[in-house]
Amino acid sequence: MPRNEESVATKLQRIAEKARSDPKCRFTSLFHLMNRELLWECFWQLKDARASGIDRVTKEQYAEHLMENLDALIGRLHRMAYVPQSVRRVYIPKPGSDKQRPLGIPVLEDKLVQAGLSKILEAIYEEDFVEDSYGFRPGRSCHDALRVLGRTIERQGTQYVVEADIKAFFDNVDQDQLMAFLAHRVADKRVLRYIRRFLKAGIQEDGVYRASDRGTPQGGVISPLLANLYLHYTLDLWFQRRFQPGCTGPARLIRYADDYVASFKHEVDAKRFRIEMEKRLGLYGLEIAPEKTRILAFGPMAQQWAKEQGRRKAETFDFLGFTHYCTTSRNGKW
What we know:
about 325 residues, alpha+beta, four-stranded antiparallel sheet, 12 helices
């Protein structure tokens, strides 16, 4: 693939450096990066043999005339003539259940454009996102989140954990609030307009179209980044800047996408978090599932407290597919 004098990677690096050095900078010129080089790289990073969207175009078919297709796509993008297509909804079996889970399948070009926009936005927001956010970020994994959680409980005085669950998070994101959050850093109107178009693209199920007034694009490449952005402003910054300073002891919130737990030394802080978190999320159209949200004793004293209360073991909680048990290591140190 022929490159310009300065590669897109170099330009994205400069954007990241500017975002890091100036947290209040609003970027006015970003969309020019949606060029042949960027989209060519994004195309080959798309996964092979994936189901096709409503136009039924596969990656293999698109690749047959790749450069011509990319040039035509870029032309439409920069004329603002590109219109995202609705997402094809199908259902797949839900693991461990007889229920089915809805799955959104965008058309290939929508995946491609979203991937390009994601790379541009990622250059900015990777400099903003907090350290304890782990989901769908480069160089981070669920194992990193689990490792940090374990160390926090073992070594930072944790005695209580709040296990939380947001009801249908990806379906309930307030799109106007999301666009307002984006505008804190992005002032390029073309980027904002295309993200708005993706949010409004809608869903097709059994040939019937349904508009999307809430939520992020189903199955969209850009959805994880938009989800992180939404929870960065609604939850992460609120916890670090407003809630945590008022705690009577150590407190930490560890998040992987919309899955998170908070740890505390004192029960009073855990109880206050449970109440104020629900109010905070409610301001942005989100609601917790009461039956899946609870406070439990979990830390060095939890086993002893459980025995004093007539229970054999301390309570457990689930996070990132693992059930966490409160016990000690073989040598008794942790």
